What we know:
The structure holds two protein chains of two kinds. Chain A is mainly alpha-helical. Helices cover 76% and strands 0% of the residues of chain A. The longest helix of chain B has 18 residues, at 165-182. Chains A and B meet through helix 6 and helix 7 of A and strand 7 of B.
Amino acid sequence: xxxxxxxxxxxxxxxxxxxxxxxxVSLPFGFAAAYVMSYYSFRGxxxxxxxxxxxxTLPPVLIGYLLLLSLGKKGWLGQYLDAAGIRIIFTWYAAMxxxxxxxxxxxxRSIRIGMESIDERLIQASRTLGARWxxxxxxxxxxxxxxxxxxxxxxxxxxxxxxxxxxxxxxxxIPGVTQTMPLAIYEYASSPGGERMALALCLVAIVxxxxxxxxxxxxxxxxxxRD
Amino acid sequence: xxxxxxxxxxxxxxxxxxxxxxxxxxLGIFGESGSGKSTLVNMLAGLVRPxxxxxxxxxxxxxxxxxxxxxxxxxxxxxxxxxxxxxxPHLSVRKNLLYGYHRCASGHRRISLDDLVEVLRIGHxxxxxxxxxxxxxxxxxxxxxxxxxxxxLLLMDEPLSALDDTLRFQIIPYLRGVCERxxxxxxxxxxxxxxxxxxxxxxxxxxxxxxxxxxxxxxLARLRMGTNPVGYINLMRLTDPQPHGSxxxxxxxxxxxxxxASPGEGGLLFELSSxxxxxxxxxxxxxxxxxxxxxxxxxxxTVGNKAGLELVCQGNRLVAEIAGEAARExxxxxxxxxxxxxxxxxxxxxx
Lengths: 227, 351
């Protein structure tokens, strides 16, 4: 019988907390980015597109390092946070920010696919019926791109559960504080006799991922059945 | 309603240059596809920004490039009915209908849901989703949604062209009825002459991005008789159907016509092409055609190598066409008396 240590339980709990928080915090920004990219044309749109997708192609370790440089005590952002008494590096906030940055392109892409599949005439109809742009956004665009939002959120949640490279650099691997499941698995796997525990944690990760994917499919088919 | 448009818009090679004034409550914009009708509609609704010029509705500027005025679509109070219904798929029929109503200032709300539902006969659909409605039901709901936003102008952009013939003529009475009942002026855009004649009083003709004529729909149909493969379509409202042997007899302005078409459900509007009449100078003694109308020529007009004749028979008017040569040989002129023979099967029921 496998029994998890309190540190393992903490790692599982922290992973879930980081993934939920990263997804929730990113959602409004991801939705806004997808909206701007779907419905506006402006100078520098291509540049923004490239920047939005950059985390998808950069190694996560590099992203972690850049975050460390900017959020560290002497970083361009970190110095102000430090002055305000806020510490991010080596806390669970850092793990959340790392996950959010790495998963952001996946979130935006899915929501955009949802938005771009909406017939433009529906948006025009809503405007000519007296809806301002934000009214149209909440009463037409949001409900009709909801499947994209669900898909993006589950992708982002799944990606956050597995986040390793950026997290280990910017949040460290402190058991009970910043050690998430992938970090705990890494630690077990690299220490002698830890294979059994590594496998047990892998099993938990697989169950969590499957649960998210099933929830996604369930919500997707529920929305698809609406008439 | 008074509309003043002087606006331009270019898309690559295509250039729309509209410059017209129109007054009335039943206006039409006629043109083939690619003539710029839809661009014009989008500019009026505020969905497309003109490159320059001005658009005034009842004296109020909706767009004015020199004064930098461009009222956004939601504040123009101009509703749109598209070619396809474009109902909100996530809302019920009721919520679709009330979408514009809830966004209309209470001072402008003249039309209520109950009245509209009665005119459009969609009461039984209210709680349903919109995805399982028939084509005609969807278009009625789309019309109702636009009307309930209590607009000061209704734009109908080819609202019938996605429907089949039967459905199209079933919807027309609703389009007319709802606008007449609630006093909403409209601009009806189409490439169908028959629809123009049923829906409008004045027509502005658009060709290659600019208006080429302003006329009424009937004059336009006569002008196009020569080039239209179906000729001029006489629209005839018949009444009092009675079985008559294997045929049906209908009343048409004091006289009776014999048709193969049975009355069925709905209105009794029939079409008869100007090509489906044969004219005789004298009474032909025996003839297979079931209708022989004694008429006087009220007007004679030439279109290409054809002669168009406006005939009056017991106060009813019909347009017939014959070859120009035939008109000369028969010595037909204004005031001549002729007999028009029409086969019982030549009448086609519209709705």
